[in-house]
Amino acid sequence: MRVISTGRNGMLNATGVEFYRETEQVAIETPTVQLRWMTQPEAGMPVGPFRVYHENDHRPGLKAQLANDDGMWELIEECSLPIMDGAYEQARHRLDYATVPSLEGWSPIDRDAYLDDVVRGRLGEGLRDMLASGQPHYSFAVNPPERFELRALTEGAFAAAADRSSGTWYPWRVALLAAATDPWASLALGFGTATPIGNETLSRYMITAEYEFSGRRLEFADIVDVSYDLPRPHPATGLEARVFQVERGGALDAFGVDVINVMWDRPPHAQDTVGNAASRFACGHAIVRREMYHVEAPVPNPDVFEYLNLRRLQGGGYVPLAAGLAPGNDKLMAVDRIPRRQTSGAPGYHYQIAVGDIFGRWADIAAETIVASPPETPCAPELRSVQLGSDGSLVVEFSWDWKERSPKFIELSGAFRDGLGSGVFGAAFKFEEGAQEPAPVAGVELTALSPLFVPCAFGAEQDAALGSSGTRFYRARTVLDLEFFGVTRRWYEVVGRGQAFMHARELVGFNISPWSAPKSVEVIDPEPPPVPALAASEVPLWASLPDPSGISRVHLSWAPAQGAAGYAVYEASETALLIRLDQPSRETTASLLDRLRVLRGADLAGAPCRTAFRRVNVDLIDATQTSYELELPKGSKVLHLITVVAIGHNNIESAWPATSEGCLAYAVPRLRPPAAPSLEARLEDGKVKLRVEAGADDIGGRISIHRLIGGEGQPEIGWMERLLPAPVEINAAVTLLEDTPPPRPEQHRLWYRAVAWSKEDGGKAILSSASAPSAAVGVLVPGILPDPEIFEWDGSFQPGDIGIVRGRHFRARDLRPAILLERTRPGEVQEGVHVCWAVGFTDTEISFTVPDIPEPGATYQVTVVRGDGVEVVAEDTLIVGGL
Fold first, then answer.
1. What burial class does residue 428 get, using C-beta atoms within 10 Å of its C-beta: 0-12 exposed, 13-18 middle, 19+ buried?
2. Contacts 24+ apart (CB under 8 A), 458-463
3. CA angle, 464 as apex, 440 and 253 as ends, to 5°?
4. What's the confidence (pLDDT) of residue 123?
5. Which residues lie closer than 8 Å to 436 by C-beta, 6 or more apart?
6. HSE value, Cβ hemisphere, 13 Å, CA-based, for 802
7. d(CA 317, CA 272)
8. If you average pLDDT over residues 607-634, what whole number do you get?
9. How far is residue 367's CA from residue 233's CA, in Å, rounded to a whole number?
10. What per-residue confidence (pLDDT) applies to 733?
11. Distance CA 375, CA 341 (A)
């Protein structure tokens, strides 16, 4: 029973076409029927030849029914695979009727030579080894491969038939790939046939193949209706070409190879074959390349062209290109490798593509594209390092890649970034053809270096190290005029450029590389910075009072030093300096001035004393900071000499202070507070008399008095005001002071405290300090009534009326002020006094009854008398007019 299994994953697929006459596509001598078929690759090789049947009775029906109707089929041919008996003779007969493509320059094949190579050659041997191995046909590999033959059979689809990394190829995959893409290979390998057309009118054919699975044989079949009007393949679309890379030449100064990827749109997939529809799809390609040449514009040369397709090893002609997918997209791709004839590139290449089917027919050429060949990238030196010493010695290390191109010249140029003064450097090292060493350059010493940067001879010794990459290293030395023009640091920059010998030979000035990115080096003025200026002091300075942990601190400040990168603080104790001077230690109770005088007289910059100074700060104090705080040893009672030095950018310190005044002397001060004084206070004649008694040791110190108005109990001194602007000096054991209480209308209490201040002794580092306050002493002060003041009096009243006096300070607790009226007649002295008591009063007004005074027109004087009637306290006011 025959099984029909067709389609994309079927066991057997066949197609066919009739050729009756010579056309522009195919040259024929005899009308023929061309049949082609393909099997499932995973199924492996059939157990017998493919059989071709022709119908002798046309009947309708399904393929499965017709395939098993033996009465309607006549066996006309058996097509054996290359390793089967009779394969060579059968293939020779089929090739007699093979079609010859009419593409320009696509030369015909020598059938015998080609058949000998395919059937009896390496592919046939690989298939025999495959059968003998007993391994699955699809996975059987041959190692080592015959690479040249393999490329000819599988160019463009290499991965399907071989593994480049392991160097193996698969005979069965190669046979299937060749049969599916090359019309001649399909006939030679037994996957197709070509037979003359006789007088038969029936055009249905059946192809069968037998396979053995698990000891059981199955026969598969496909039925083909052959037609002479089967359409040709679709033309290619979307053709484009890109320069993928330019491979270097195989030797020094050899021309490289342009590697160009030629890509075009992938045609649609063939669906399951129904009739002969699959034959419209491309199975092979022919790509033509023409070089461009210049007339007025780049145009393709019509007379010179070349196929990208490989030539057959035996028999001549070309192999249809089986293209693979381009990486990263859905286009098909072929790779063109064009040896260069010049380094400046070429005007371009013009590509056209033809699409062929398995019968050797070609679609019209409809797609073309042009790609330019780029010039080589300029060759340039690489700057490795630049060094510039403070003496002006310049060292430049650079390299040149000798793997592909030898240099025509290497040029170096250098200058200071700030452009000040001289220091410009330039040197061009020129190489003659074939020379390993450049011509000498005046004033510049050039040394060849090995890859380990060891001086060596020019040429081969530069490549002698293990693992050399072809890069050669050089070191150039020269001396510059170096000045600093008042700045501390300057930047020097070196750039380089070059030209390859091949580029210079091809065209003057061609492909000179641009200047490289600058390589910079910083050079620093070797002169040390000046000594930072400290505020000089001939007497010891005080550090801070010790904190609760006993640590005292010194806050230093100095003027900035030009060109300093930072500062360092040095400190030496009095004890350390006396040891260096071989002098005994001094009593700490001795005068600081006497002790300092000894140190000032020593040579502090000399070797013995210099070693007594220790550097306080480990890290540099930043150049922008001109102050520093350092801690003195806990409990220190000796002098400490401190100085500051500047450090330049080259890590050189400034000179040590030339005189001892460049070092500041510091001592830790102490406090000796006196005992609290005793205080007495009494009120006498409106004054508070104060008596302060201090100890005998406090004479020469000072006393401050603090007062609080009002309040009850013992007030804290912090709430009291200092009575005197400054403390009063203590000249005796008892100090008498007085205080005038501020006037207040009510009775109140004044509180007093006294504080004693000790005498300062700079020679012994004793600071003035305050005693504890005395006990608070209170004084009761009675209220003091202020004198009333009169502003106006309205006296134009008749006797018995109410008069008003306006002013202030009229009320004094519960005492009532009185109104005293004095009348004076014209030309007379005071005659009498009339008193009238106030009717009512406030702080600012007093009302009274006008007395019965019978003499209008007299002048009166009004006086406000304090309520107690004892003292006249108001200013007189003259009233003009009568009552």
1. middle
2. 460/436, 463/402
3. 65
4. 83
5. 458, 459, 460
6. 7
7. 33
8. 92
9. 14
10. 81
11. 11
Give me the DSSP letters along 815-841: B--EEEEEEE-TT----EEEEEEEEEE
Q: Is the dihedral of CA 741, 743, 744, 746 positive or negative?
A: positive
Q: Kindly report the number of other CB atoms within 10 A of residue 843's CB atom.
A: 10
pLDDT (tens digit, 9 = 90+) per residue, 456-511? 999 988 887 655 678 999 999 999 988 888 788 899 999 999 999 999 988 888 99
Residue 823's pLDDT band, with cuts at 50, 70 and 90, is low
CB atoms within 10 A of CB 259: 15
Mean pLDDT calculated for residue range 568-575: 94
* pLDDT bucket at 650, cuts 50 / 70 / 90: confident
**Which residues, 6+ apart, have CB-to-CB distance to 379 below 8 Å?**
400, 401, 404, 405, 407, 498, 499, 500, 503, 511, 513
Determine the Cα–Cα distance for residues 60 and 881; give it in Å rounded to an integer: 161
Angular region, 419: left φ>0, alpha ψ -120 to 50, beta rest: left
Tokens matching residue 421:
């003064």
H/E stretch holding 67 reads helix 63-67
Give pLDDT, residue 492: 95
pLDDT of 747 reads 81
User: What is the separation of C-alpha 154 from the centre of its chain, rounded to a whole number of angstroms?
Assistant: 49
Mean residue pLDDT of the chain comes to 83
Backbone φ and ψ for 242, nearest 5 degrees, come out as: -135, 140
Positive/negative CA dihedral, 3, 5, 10, 14: positive
| Lowest mean per-residue pLDDT among 236-240, 259-263, 447-451, 467-471 | 467-471
Whether residue 241 contacts residue 349, with contact meaning beta carbons closer than 8 Å, is answered with yes
Dihedral angle of Cα 575, 581, 585, 589, to the nearest 10 degrees: -80
**Calpha distance 653→632 (Å, rounded):** 24
> Cis (ω within 30 of 0) for the bond into 144?
yes
Report the C-alpha gap between 843 and 379 in whole angstroms.
Answer: 110
| Per-range mean pLDDT, top range of 228-237, 292-301, 458-467, 501-510 | 501-510
Q: What is the pLDDT of residues 434-445, one digit of tens each?
A: 899 999 999 999
Q: Tell me, what amino acid is at 277?
A: A
Q: What is the pLDDT of residue 148?
A: 39
Q: How would residue 28 be classed by pLDDT, with cut points 50, 70 and 90?
A: low
Q: How far apart are CA 313 and CA 299, in angstroms?
A: 33
Q: What one-letter code names the amino acid at 663?
A: C
How far is it, in rounded angstroms, from Cα 24 to Cα 472? Answer: 60
SS3 607: helix
Q: Whole-model pTM?
A: 0.59
Burial of 433 from C-beta contacts in 10 A (0-12 / 13-18 / 19+): exposed
Say how far apart CA 288 and CA 308 lie, in whole Å. 6
pLDDT score, position 284? 86
Q: Which residues pair with 206 in a beta bridge?
A: 53, 223
CB atoms within 10 A of CB 120: 13
Instruction: Kindly state the tokens that stand for 279.
Output: 């034959």
Q: How far is the C-alpha of 596 from the C-alpha of 639, rounded, in Å?
A: 8
In angstroms, the CA 358 to CA 375 distance is 40
Q: Rounded distance, CA 458 to CA 234, Å?
A: 62
Full 3-state SS string of 167-206: CEECHHHHHHHHHHHCHHHHHHHCCEEEEECCCCCCCEEE
Tell which residue, 7, 8, 22, 55, has the closest CA to residue 225: 55
d(CA 387, CA 392): 10
- Residue 430 binned pLDDT confidence (cut-offs 50, 70, 90): very high
Running DSSP on this structure, what letter comes out for residue 71?
Answer: G
The answer to whether the CB of 35 falls within 8 A of the CB of 52 is: yes
- Coil, strand or helix at 119: helix
Q: Which residues pair with 722 in a beta bridge?
A: 706
Is the distance from CB of 730 to CB of 687 less than 8 angstroms? Answer: no
- Provide the terminal-to-terminal Cα distance of the chain, rounded to the nearest Å: 164
